[in-house]
Structures are given as C-alpha cells and as structure tokens.
TrEMBL record:
Residue intervals of the Acyl-CoA oxidase/dehydrogenase middle domain: 133-224
Pfam family of the protein (one): Acyl-CoA_dh_1
Molecular function (Gene Ontology), one example: 3-methylbutanoyl-CoA dehydrogenase activity
Pathway given in the UniProt record: Amino-acid degradation; L-valine degradation
Gene that specifies this protein: ivd
Domain Acyl-CoA dehydrogenase/oxidase N-terminal: residue ranges: 15-128
Protein name: Isovaleryl-CoA dehydrogenase
Sequence ranges assigned to domain Acyl-CoA dehydrogenase/oxidase C-terminal in this UniProt record: 242-385
Species per Swiss-Prot/TrEMBL record: Leptospira johnsonii
C-alpha cells in the first residue's frame, strides 16, 4: 500500500526494533496474508500452515516474553504493530493470532510458574501447539463473574464441568487457559491449563459467523474433565487479578485490529477515487461528497491511532490502565466500522461486491465492538473509572 507512510522513529515506531518489526511484518502480510484472505473467508477455513509459519519463519510468538525465556523481549507497542499490520490484510487470521499470542501466551507467561513455562512455552512459541482462552460462557459474556464452570478438587486433581462459548481457536487448539469457579463466591475465580487431549474435553459445533470467518470459533465442553493440580495457574481463587490485567492488552490489540482495517480501507478508497474511477469526466476524488467520506475517514483513523499507541506505550504487567484500554477500544472499533462503511460507499457497487476487500473488512470490523468486552461495557468501565478518579481524595 502506498499512501500512509511511516516516519523512522516516532510514536508508532519508538525504536529501531519496532520499525524493523513493522517492516518485516508488513512485508510478510502483504506477500502471504493478502493472497489467501478471500479464499479462507469464503470457505470459513483456518490456514493452519500459514499460522505455524508465524513461529517457525517470522518468530512473532512471544512478543512480550523476555528473550531469556524464548520470546522477543518487546512491549505492547510491538504487539499493536503486528495486529495493525496483519489486520490490514486478514483480520480473521489476525484474530486467531491474537487468541494465541495475547489471550494465551502473554497471559500464561505472566501468570504461570517456571515449571509450567518450561513445559508449555516451547510448544506455543514455536507454533507446534496453538493456544486459546476459555472465559466466555453461554450465559456469561461481559459479566465474567457470572460464569458457571466449576472446578472441584479431588486429591491431586481438579474435576472441571461446564461450557465455554465463542472460543477463538477452538477445534484447532491444543491448549487453553480456562477460568472456573472453585467456590460459590462470584469473585473467586481460578485458572487452569487445559489440554484438548484430556479425557472429558470436547468441542461444540463450529459457529457460522458474519465476519472473522477464517478464524474458528466453537464451544469448549468439559464433562468430568480431570486436570492435574499442577496445572492450576497462580493461586486457587486468585485468577481475577491476572484476568483483568490481561484484558487491557487484549483491548489495545483488538483496537489495533481496527486500525489495520481502517488503514486498508482508506488506501482502497484513495486508490480507487484518485487513480482509477471517473464520473462525468472527473476523477471521483473531485466530488465534494466523496472528499468528505475520505477526509473524515483518514482523520478518524489518525486520531484513533494516536490514542491506541499512546495507551499501548503505558501498559505493563505491573501497571493497570483500564481507563486507557477501554477508551482505545471504544474509539477505534467505532471508527473502523465508520471507515469501512465509508469505503463501501465510495466504491459503490464494487464496494458491495467481493472483488474488493472492503465488504469483508466491514464484516470483520463489527466483531471488534463485541469481543474483549462489548462497547457498552467499555462505556460503563470508562464512566466507573472516571467516577473513581473524580471522587478519590
């Protein structure tokens, strides 16, 4: 894509390592993700071979894991860079990357113990195993404390019973970080490492979705599933802290997916209206109605991008920034829906057809205002955080 250029070192590329990462990821995405995106969307199929190349060839699993433990030793800004660049070509594939890299790898590394890391990290960093997370349930989405999956201790094992709903990387995953209740106290939640090969583990039907169709989504079903006690992450009843902490990087990376969608849509609009389409002997860009759609789309994208990268630069496992993360997700996901819809309008009939990617990008954009906490939940969280801020002594 020509139009939107990067400066060498700035807010979006704070170091040479970040800039190099962006250039490598962008080149890989343009060469590999773009060509396969439409087919896998049409077929609702997951490109497992390409996914494993992310570890074996590109080496971008474990972005926020220290180098001494096999990761890249980078920060949430680096993770945002990858999600933005990938989502410009295939947001569905990128969502599966997010579930593996952010929901499992980042969460597990910062919450697990050394022996657990030694057992599982090599497999997920190489891409040999694909990971995911089980939090949402049929009757508990944004209200995570309403979950009903139960873990009962029996000697040196826990027995899990329950269902997880809308789980990204279901069917293709080998290992999941699963949240469950070990008591009736709604705030006492425990997390476990659960392998899909364990007896009593099964997958529900694959969901047929409006968008993000190249990323598989299923139920995880636990029926008297025995998990070794050594697979308990952290302390019993102590999962709420790392659950909420990981939601922050999840939300900024979902916001980054919105940025990638918007960037691609702006580029498609500009190329179409400036270089290709004419009406009444004028380039389409010469018409005021088209200028408004394109100008507002570009400005909205740039404003959201500044917010997302600023928030990402301030996120750290030891620092909470729920206000910033919720704000970044709310603004960016709304922006991506507007911009992708504008792109369809600028392209007219072509935008509505699948010859151009904007109709797929628009369908994909809608999920981002639902997953990782709905936008309505973001509004509630922002208001609650502001209330605390203004009433604290």
């Amino acid at each position: 894509m020509k139009g939107i250029q990067e400066k060498k070192i700035d807010l979006y590329n704070p170091t040479d390592d970040h800039l190099s990462l962006r250039e490598n990821v962008r080149a890989f995405a343009k060469e590999n993700l773009d060509l396969q995106a439409k087919d896998h969307d049409d077929e609702e199929s997951f490109n497992k071979d390409l996914f494993r190349r992310l570890g074996a060839e590109l080496g971008i699993f474990g972005v926020t894991v220290p180098q001494e433990d096999g990761g890249m030793g980078l920060d949430p800004v680096a993770s945002v860079i990858i999600h933005e660049e990938f989502s410009a070509y295939d947001p569905g594939f990128t969502l599966s990357y997010l579930a593996h890299e952010v929901l499992f790898v980042n969460n597990f590394y910062h919450s697990g113990n050394p022996s657990q890391r030694a057992k599982y990290m090599p497999k997920v960093l190489s891409g040999e195993w694909i990971g995911g997370m089980g939090m949402t349930e049929p009757g508990a989405g944004t209200d995570v404390l309403g979950m009903e999956t139960v873990a009962t201790r029996r000697g040196d094992k826990f027995v899990l019973n329950g269902r997880k709903q809308f789980i990204t990387n279901g069917i293709v995953g080998q290992v999941f970080l699963v949240y469950a209740k070990t008591s009736k106290d709604s705030r006492r939640t425990t997390s476990f490492i659960v392998e899909s090969s364990y007896p009593g583990f099964s997958f529900g039907k694959k969901e047929e979705k409006m968008g993000m169709r190249s990323s598989p989504t299923t139920q995880l079903i636990f029926e008297n599933l025995e998990v070794p006690a050594e697979n308990l992450i952290g302390s019993e009843d102590g999962a709420l802290t790392h659950m909420m902490r990981n939601l922050e990087i999840e939300r900024v990376t979902l916001a980054a997916q919105s940025l990638g969608i918007a960037k691609r849509c702006v580029d498609v609009m500009c190329e179409y209206s400036i270089l290709h389409r004419e009406a009444f002997d004028k380039k389409l860009i010469e018409f005021g109605q088209i200028q408004r759609l394109i100008a507002e789309s570009y400005a909205d994208y740039q404003a959201a991008r500044a917010l997302v990268y600023d928030v990402a630069s301030k996120i750290h496992p030891e620092n909470r920034n729920s206000l910033g993360a919720a704000s970044a997700k709310l603004v960016s996901t709304q922006m991506a829906e507007r911009v992708s819809r504008n792109a369809i309008q600028v392209l007219g009939g072509y935008g509505y057809c699948r010859e151009y990617p904007v109709e797929r990008l628009h369908r994909d954009a809608i999920l981002l205002s639902i997953g990782g906490g709905t936008n309505e939940a973001m509004q509630k969280n922002i208001a609650a955080d502001l209330k605390k801020l203004y009433t604290s002594s």
